[in-house]
Amino acid sequence: MSVQSILLTAAFAIAFSTAAQAENKDSASVSQKELKAKTDYCKTCHGVSGQGFRGAFPMPRLAGQQPEYLKNQLSAFIERRRTNPVMFNVAHVLSPPMLTALTTYFRDLDPKPLGGAPRELVAAGKKIYEEGVPKAEVPPCASCHGPDAKGADAFPRLAGQLHDYIFRKLTNWDKERGQDKANPDNSAIMGPIAHNLTEAQIKAVAAYLSYLD
Ligand code: HEC
Ligand code: HEC
Known about the structure:
The chain is mainly alpha-helical. It is built from eleven helices and two strands; from the N terminus they run ααββααααααααα. Strands 1-2 form a two-stranded antiparallel ribbon. A hairpin with a 3-residue loop joins strand 1 and strand 2. The chain is globular.
């Protein structure tokens, strides 16, 4: 696929999902007490400030994440378009108002990144982030995820994300995301990009992102 057609597909898919999201209810019917009980639970895995956590495997950072992206992923776990047994169990009991309240809550957290990636990869990673890999038809990450990697709407924030989580996601993209072929989602936009990056390039860009505030 050419860069242009990837971008066009992206614009179309995003416009589509935004319309679908507009139906969601507000968070009026969730009490502070219920919300706190739920967020305390999320933090047992995702870190006390939603900054992510390294256990047996990396738990992603949720802090500062775009609400629309968070909502899309929680729906994807529930509908098994994104396969993860742990998060299926967590997400399928959430009411729509709770889901909205959680996404607003995590958006507003702003802890320091956990870091921990090899520093010597950062410069190469920054170049990939800003310029893409033209020879491999990989567009600049910044063109969708933003110049400071904060994301927007359905494009996720990547700044401060755990490098080992990013590595695992980009090396397994097609096995975990977009699993309901009859109901394609925004994950299709990232498929060719994840596929066309080498493991060394993924490690570099993940290292760069993991240190961004
Ligand atoms: C028992 C541990 C556990 C708990 C509790 C938990 N999560 Fe998760 N969560 C995970 C793991 C593991 C992943 C990574 C899945 C993967 O690798 O694809 C994840 C992924 C996610 C993602 C996708 C993030 C991304 O960047 O794509 C979201 C959103 C999420 N969790 C939200 C929540 C919320 C909200 C709660 C509380 C209601 C919660 N999680 C509770 C373990 C947990
Ligand atoms: C054409 C737009 C576009 C470009 C260019 C792009 N992305 Fe993405 N990316 C997306 C979208 C949209 C998603 C959300 C997919 C979903 O909802 O399933 C995403 C998701 C991701 C995720 C998953 C985040 C998470 O929390 O699990 C990672 C990691 C990622 N992109 C890294 C990159 C990197 C690295 C580059 C550059 C090499 C890049 N992206 C270029 C659109 C893009």
